[in-house]
Amino acid sequence: MKRILLATAVSAGLVSAAAAEPVNIGVILGFTGPLESITPGMGGSAEVALKEASDSGKLPNGITLNPVRADSTCVDAAAATTAAEGLVSSQNVAAIMGADCSGVTTAVATNVAVPRGVTIISPSATSPALTDLEDNGYFFRTAPSDARQGEVLADLVTENGTTEVAVTYTNNDYGKGLADTFAAAFEERGGTVAISAAHEDAKADYSAEVAALQASGADTLMVFGYVDRGGRGIVQGALDTGAFENFYFADGMYGQSLIDAVGDEINGIVIGTLPGVEGEGADIFAKVAESHGMDPTGTYVPESYDAAALIALSIAASGSADRTAIRDHVMNVANAPGEQIFAGELAKGIEILTSGGDIDYQGATGVELIGPGEAAGSYRVYEIENNAPVTLGYR
Fold first, then answer.
1. CA separation for the pair 190, 178 (Å, rounded)
2. Which residues fall within 8 angstroms of residue 18, CB to CB, at 6 or more apart?
3. Do you find a cis peptide bond into 302, omega within 30 degrees of 0?
4. 3-state secondary structure of 219
5. How far is 1 from 183, CA to CA, in rounded Å?
6. Would you tell me how many other CB atoms lie within 10 Å of the CB of residue 217?
7. What distance in Å separates the CA atoms of residue 121 and residue 208, rounded to the nearest whole number?
8. Is 74 helix (H, G, I), strand (E, B) or coil?
9. DSSP percent split of the chain into helix, strand, coil, nearest 5
10. pLDDT 10s digit of each residue in the chain, 395 long?
């Protein structure tokens, strides 16, 4: 049920907008670092949503939205904090789309966004620890928590008859959180984690890590790493030595760049998961994405569109770009009751909201926010065949 909120006036010292001056919206993602091959698609998707809302000409007071990019690096909390501080202080952003990786998202939210009263909506930060973030209601995410992904992966492994696995994970909040949730779920299903070992990113050689994983005796390796850094290095080392027969990838490992780098040996031995949905909303978004030259199945591309769209729609609902008012309307525009709004229909949604009506934003991913800004979400399951990911289904 939607919360009933009092109208929020534009406060002195907070962001307001005039028709002649665009409202800046931060887009902070790891444009360098272990996800640099996928973040351009994420950033571009968010910017498509912001442009769609601006081009409608229907935002209150003639507001237009100007995306301002910043680099989270994905891994350097200090650098991400500095970048976010620049967005808030120098660029005077009304809200932030991002960040991407869980550790830097926590840093940006805790050190900058929450203290400064700026709504932050991440399309890809999935650490279960973010559920309990002390955020004063300013943090949201459009990707589901890894508490759910761990269970999905445990189901897949168990259903395929595997009873023992080795786990490698990137040594940060995302990797450790996912490794822990997977292990708990897998052991509940009767499975055994023979070894669970962290790896560091950006190393030149992972032969020692692969040897330790192989020594566990398991023939299946769970890889909870990053597609452009340590995760790729582990997989390449394992393929070179024949250490494992099968691999399972979590969402951070999804990307054509890995497939192109490691070659044909990867075909037929990988099953992976990443957030994704099927149905009307996904089909509509596919057409929108393709019309803008984007891959609608790209990693966190749909979630990025939705995160930016929620910001734009919250501005419409609040009647201004006041930072606190944006926060107070995100849950309202995301959930029922109201008319369902899909990707490419932001103008329609804005018109309903500015006329005092209600919407239930479905967007690209069937948005439903639960609990403290959590996304309910579902997962796409794929395998790698013929040097490309092939969808097996959704859970």
1. 18
2. 61, 62
3. no
4. coil
5. 35
6. 9
7. 38
8. coil
9. 45, 20, 35
10. 333 333 333 333 344 434 448 999 999 999 999 999 999 999 999 999 999 999 999 999 999 999 999 999 999 999 999 999 999 999 999 999 999 999 999 999 999 999 999 999 999 999 999 999 999 999 999 999 999 999 999 999 999 999 999 999 999 999 999 999 999 999 999 999 999 999 999 899 999 999 999 999 999 999 999 999 999 999 999 999 999 999 999 999 999 999 999 999 999 999 999 999 999 999 999 999 999 999 999 999 999 999 999 999 999 999 999 999 999 999 999 999 999 999 999 999 999 999 999 999 999 999 999 988 999 989 999 999 999 999 999 99
- Domains (ranges, CATH) in the chain? 23-143+279-375 (3.40.50.2300), 146-268 (3.40.50.2300)
Cβ neighbours for 46, distance < 8 A, ≥ 6 positions apart: 27, 67, 97, 123, 304, 305, 307, 308
- Joined together, the tokens standing for residue 303 give 């979630």
Number of Cβ within 10 Å of residue 296's Cβ equals 22
| Residue type at position 1 | M
Give phi and psi for 139, each to the nearest 5.
Answer: -105, 135
The whole-model pTM stands at 0.92
**Pairwise CA distance, residues 2 & 72, whole Å:** 33
Q: Which helix (H) or strand (E) holds 390?
A: strand 388-394
